[in-house]
Amino acid sequence: MAQSPFPGMDPYLESPRLWADVHHRLINIFAEQLSSLLMPKYFAELESYVVIDKISNDSIIAVPDVTITENEFNEFEDSMDTAVAIAPAPLHLKVPIPVPTHIINIHIKQNEENEELVTVIELLSPVNKRAGKGREKYLKKRDGLFESRVHLVEIDLLRQWPRMPFVEETLPEMDYLAMVSRAYKRPDCEVWPIGLREPLPVLPIPLSRPDPDIPLDLGQALRTAYERAHYERRINYKLPPIPSIKQKNVAWVENCLRCH
Prior knowledge:
Strand content: 15-25%
Number of domains: 1
Strand order of the largest sheet: 1-2-3-4-5-6
Radius of gyration: 22 Å
Shape: globular
Helix content: 25-40%
Number of helices: 6
Order of helices and strands: HEHEEHHEEEEEHH
């Protein structure tokens, strides 16, 4: 059975080469976990939306579903004879290219005729976190949920880029974070700071009162995704992960890999 070397989040899964696949698999497994617990009163529905991303100079940003092809005129232009020697350009840069990026989340709705939205579960992606229109769009959506009667569960399994804002100016040191914002308790919310060395928590998913919370086991979901995708065949654990590990965790990561 394929297993990650790490007890919680596998930092190698944050690779821009893998994250889009990890995200899609986790969201689907979250929905699988919850579906049987929600019936018959509720159901979990996968919702997708599009964020316009941009190809960036940042080496750890990957834009999914993008194909870059050579200009069809390059070969013709290279073969042209020129009477005057032309010096190469002193700089080669990139221009921002808008790219549609598809994000999937989970909507928990009441299993009634009006299908009232009760809870939204968001697993953050790079386009949500890094500066730009994607983050701005997500924050606007987040603020709209905070002003509604809909609960928000926000899961951040990416170490790179700033966290989503809270009223407090500083958060405790952490590698990952999960937040449950109950509509009837705002502005207060429940926050799980998660370290790289820690197992992923089981989160309470709130429903309409007086119905009790149902559990979402992040650790089990990650283990299931890893096994189904056989990520051990795609990850080269001999190389350092992207983004890099904090210096204080380097020896611990090496020990996990050595003992696996």
